[in-house]
# Entry
Amino acid sequence: MINTNYSNLKANYLFSTVAEKVRAYSEAHPDADVIKLGIGDVTKPLAKSVIEALHKAVDENAVAETFMGYGPEQGYGFLREALAKYYKTLGADVDADEIFVSDGAKSDIANILDIFDKNCHVVIPDPVYPVYLDTNIMDGRQVSFLNANEGNIFLPMPEDLMSDAQPDIIYLCSPNNPTGACYNKEQLKVWVDYANKLGAVILFDSAYEIFADKDGLPRTIFAIDGARTCAIEIASLSKTAGFTGTRCSYTVVPKELVRDGQSLKDMWFRRQSTKFNGTPYIVQRAAEAVFTEQGYAEILENIKLYQTNAKIITDTLDELGIYYTGGHYSPYIWLKCPNNMSSWEFFDFFLEKAQVVGTPGEGFGENGKGFFRLTAFNTPDRTQEAMNRLKEILK
Amino acid sequence: MINTNYSNLKANYLFSTVAEKVRAYSEAHPDADVIKLGIGDVTKPLAKSVIEALHKAVDENAVAETFMGYGPEQGYGFLREALAKYYKTLGADVDADEIFVSDGAKSDIANILDIFDKNCHVVIPDPVYPVYLDTNIMDGRQVSFLNANEGNIFLPMPEDLMSDAQPDIIYLCSPNNPTGACYNKEQLKVWVDYANKLGAVILFDSAYEIFADKDGLPRTIFAIDGARTCAIEIASLSKTAGFTGTRCSYTVVPKELVRDGQSLKDMWFRRQSTKFNGTPYIVQRAAEAVFTEQGYAEILENIKLYQTNAKIITDTLDELGIYYTGGHYSPYIWLKCPNNMSSWEFFDFFLEKAQVVGTPGEGFGENGKGFFRLTAFNTPDRTQEAMNRLKEILK
# Structure
């Protein structure tokens, strides 16, 4: 009667174990000044333009004349039009009716699987955001991995597939969580050509695209020729605009994406209109404000601050000669644990010797063993202090 | 590669056909004063307490000290505790940790199927809200129907099952959409005992419970002894508090609900924490305000107005001797088309002779043929005017 695939899920105790170790340490050392660089959440408040848009939308709902009831499941035209314009600034032509507004990238990444057969062969990078794997286990799909490692600078290419089975669905996340590695256009073009050749679909997670705003890096897969026949992109305002608690994301399914004679855009529309009733009106107005000139300038101020933190970390790792990826185009820095420590050994060492908390890499896959994730979401002062302590304990 | 079950979905053109007919009529008769009693959405604005809570929560997000990032996927404790208290007033003991806050009943009704096997046998009333059927077709489940009709006053009981196959999942919606019929405690007890005997799970949709606030009718299935071992309840603030565009619902999965040795509450928690990132903080604060003394008094004022409209309609139907269900405990009135007209014949007759728009019953299932749905979401004046016209054309 129940979905027995759920029993194949592994419990992921990573974050609860981290929290428990920090709690125990703080209890034993009540005066310790613990610095948290494990935070995977933004810390800056919502931008002024966003706050104003929220208040205005709330007021509209206070009177019958402007009260907003059920909206279009796909999202309001005003937001989809604003997003289509935004895509133009990223070098991609995307129609407003190819954009589906939703409550979160996690929801869309999970729910998009509804339109695919349970017998698809799925390829997932290792290490990566654990939701890709868990949602496919829940459906009972066959999963194999893409070998991301120092050799390919944690940017695996088709030759890094760990199975001979032909992929139907390929997950890519760039800039990546947890490694912070970011594909360039040439690399993404190889993936697009590969997917088109096989008829596979790329599920492209661009949640961190705003951090790649330099050096000509692609911030959407639709900046790559050929992507419209092979890719679905899932984007989010969580990190872009601090919407982790406000909830808004968007998914792009191009008209040209057809498999087994069916338009995946039409299937996703059917899925969403049957199983979803739209994102709150007030949140969609807040999202619209992000893409105004003023709103976007405001959110970039926050991003710059996180980038400053990332640079404090990467400068320190450079100075110490520690191998890492990320940081330059990402709020995540993925470092090789010094002195060949395991992820958990380094976690304990860093906490006990320097009172700094990070995240052991093995929570993100087999290839995360021996690696460690730091994040750029604390303040510059605290981040600098943490790095000073790192230098001290590695002397 | 794609989910081929989608090709078994029937396109439901009901509402688009209704809209098209109204458009064509209005174009041909530009001076016609058309009254819409087909509206399935609330029309009163958000309550004052809700608006205040929203503004306050927005302001919290404007400064770092009170900014809210990722919240618990299941919903904040403050709201789950408020809901647990609310359940007490409905005569049910529900723990806060059995309550899962979400973005909408439609989402939860659809997503709860994730935890069930694709081979479950599903039973769905006819007529009913089309989402129950469509979501199961998408999963390829075997569906049979419960025969709701005049004979059982549109409150089908286990003997009204139209298949001999043993049900695993049974959908009940009370007060019902579209019939407005509402089960009493004795009837729900029969269903609970039946489900417990078979080991079936009842998915109970209580989206309209606030309209059943009289005559000792059950407003939650958990007011029925034995429901904790067989039922999941999906409730919503859409109709209760006018949240159709603000989006908040809650689903209750009791600890005692175990199938195949697994806790369905634990499975739903796993589903939601893997595939959902929580309802917006500001919306959860708005929902909390609904369940304060002041907030609840305010929303009841709106409900009373809709109930006034419903009474205008049922009084008229009583006077005309037209058979109907609903209206007394529901914003929906489900009437038998006069003079043995079909649903669409009556639609055309009512529109052309009286300029009133309703919804043909056959959009809700085979048993909706010859029936018609009116809703109580217009204003009292307009509703009275529509009923005066109905009397006139049926003279």
About this structure: Residues 264 and 300 of chain B are 33 Å apart (CA to CA). The longest helix of chain B spans residues 293-320.
